[in-house]
Design a protein that fits this description.
Distance between the termini: 38 Å
Number of helices: 7
Largest sheet: 2 strands, antiparallel
Structural class: mainly alpha
Low-confidence stretches: 1-39
Mean pLDDT: 83
Radius of gyration: 25 Å
Number of strands: 2
Shape: elongated
Strand order of the largest sheet: 1-2
Length: about 280
């Protein structure tokens, strides 16, 4: 799963030590082994943290949305007719023909911002998975998505925001988030082999990303003709689904890699003991 950049254990084996004292050799080799283990553990810890962060980001967003939507009383929140942005509107008013009043708007806006921060952190931790131009593309897409979703949480789609002109930043942020997040899924999908991810993960990431973009296009071309909530959510939930999927696949791969290394270490130790016995 993209861990081929770990140092090779064989690089740290002592060479040409047949004529040296056994105790001296063991004393010199020990620090190298410890340094090698520490160096190998660092990327593993980073990837583990990234995986957990991605999973937490997806779950955090869903939970804050459910809590905020449930707080609506008059009118009740509609997942089909209301925009996601309605949950973050700080003022109660009639906006674009909808009655909008979100008592826990601060919860949703915090959820938007936290989602962006967590995604950016996870993306930075995963940069070691990429090399060359793909590393910069990955970082740029992460910045586009994260800044976009944080703009959505900082500037609102509301009557007051329309009056003072800040609603423009809200729409810009929504566009950046939907486009950046779904393209990030597509890019990750096409990199599955280089990153040593499963083939099915690559295909699913690509499908998820293109589905999200397609739903975003439908949303933008049918505003006012069909309920916006369905396609807006489809274009956003694809990103959350991909985050959750990536986090789980990373954790499973890390576990398999760790078990593999334990077995390999045991095999090498057995061979060493057998050689010493000779």
């Amino acid at each position: 799963m993209g861990f081929n950049r770990y140092p090779n254990d064989d690089d740290h084996e002592e060479k040409g030590t047949a004529m040296t004292d056994h105790k001296t050799t063991m004393h010199q080799a020990q620090p190298r082994t410890s340094a090698s283990s520490t160096h190998q553990r660092s990327p593993i810890l980073g990837f583990t943290a990234a995986a957990i962060t991605l999973i937490a980001a997806a779950l955090e967003y869903v939970v804050t949305e459910v809590i905020t939507a449930a707080a609506w009383k008059t009118p009740a929140y509609s997942y089909a007719s209301n925009w996601i942005s309605d949950l973050g509107a700080p003022d109660c008013s009639t906006f674009q023909g909808r009655e909008v009043c979100s008592p826990l708007h601060d919860v949703m806006n915090t959820g938007f911002i936290v989602q962006g921060v967590l995604f950016l952190i996870a993306s930075i931790l995963l940069l070691l998975l990429f090399s060359g131009a793909s590393r910069y593309v990955s970082l740029v897409l992460a910045l586009i998505y994260s800044i976009g979703i944080m703009l959505v949480g900082s500037f609102h789609g509301s009557t007051a925001a329309t009056a003072n002109g800040t609603v423009t930043f809200h729409y810009l942020g929504a566009f950046m988030a939907i486009l950046g997040g779904n393209i990030a899924a597509i890019v990750m999908g096409f990199q599955w082999k280089r990153l040593e991810m499963p083939r099915w993960y690559g295909r699913m990431s690509i499908v998820i990303g293109f589905l999200g973009i397609a739903c975003g296009v439908v949303l933008g071309t049918t505003i006012g003709r069909i309920p916006p909530g369905i396609f807006e959510r489809a274009s956003v939930y694809t990103i959350l689904l991909w985050q959750l999927l990536t986090g789980i696949v990373l954790l499973v791969g890390l576990r398999q890699r760790t078990l593999s290394r334990i077995k390999e270490t045991g095999r090498k130790e057995t061979m060493t003991h057998e050689q010493k016995g000779l």
